[in-house]
Automatic annotation (TrEMBL):
It comes from Variovorax robiniae. Residues 1-26 have a biased composition (Low complexity). This is TIGR01841 family phasin. Residues 73-164 form the Phasin domain. NCBIfam families: phasin (TIGR01841). The gene is phaP.
Amino acid sequence: MATAKKSAAKKAPAAAKKAAAPATSAVQDMQEAMTAPLKGAVEKLKSLKLPGVPEAFKNVNLQGAASAVLDNRRKDLKALVEANEKSYKGLQAVVQRQAEMLKTSITEWQSAAKEMPGKDPKEQLAKLDEMGRAAFKQALADMKELAELAAKSQADAFNVVRDRINDNVKQVSDLLKSGGK
């Protein structure tokens, strides 16, 4: 019995390590799959004698360039994930705010309905008219608030993508200025 508990205790940390390993292992496997074809190609491209290719480009570090391209794609994916998260959180905020608005509106109408019985019909109609006008104004204000909330969320997501695009343009511009070195 005691040995069974000890072996189970030893297996628990190992299981936890194995559970964490697939995430990093999957990333490493993907990186390896993307770089494996490039490893041999770098040497082959360097050894080619291509007519009309300037000498400046023959000294380009292709392995470094391939690594930079992979790093940029990783940053692109990270930016897209961040933009999607911001968009999703914004959508959640809009839905949550809509639910709060609906709950408030229902509560107000329920309390007004409880006060109605036993009053003068003219007073009831006047009260309903007043409530209808107030509800319409509130609905317009709520729609404006929701639109602003959604617009802010989308602007935040767009800014993440725009910043990544600007980084890519800057990197390409710098690469062209330096002649690929």
